[in-house]
Amino acid sequence: DQQVKQNSPSLSVQEGRISILNCDYTNSMFDYFLWYKKYPAEGPTFLISISSIKDKNEDGRFTVFLNKSAKHLSLHIVPSQPGDSAVYFCAASRLTGGGNKLTFGTGTQLKVEL
Amino acid sequence: DTEVTQTPKHLVMGMTNKKSLKCEQHMGHRAMYWYKQKAKKPPELMFVYSYEKLSINESVPSRFSPECPNSSLLNLHLHALQPEDSALYLCASSPSGGVRVNYEQYFGPGTRLTVT
Question: Are B85 and B12 in contact (CB under 8 A)?
Answer without folding.
Answer: no
